[in-house]
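Quick one: structure tokens for this chain, please?
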Amino acid sequence: MTNAPKTTNTYEDQFQRKYGEFGSKFEFGSNPTAELWNGRLAMIGFLAAVIVELTTGQSFLHFLGF
């Protein structure tokens, strides 16, 4: 057997990294970093919808014209 270094970055390899190494840059594809960014952007969108509803008194979809 040889101890050749891995040249690919597989999904399993992503889970071997420490938490602090995630979320530092945006990576495309199905990986933990993309999932962190997806969650962060979803939280920002939800907060924006709540702020629109509180400030205008209308539902978010009504505010958009639907």
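The longest helix spans residues 32-56.
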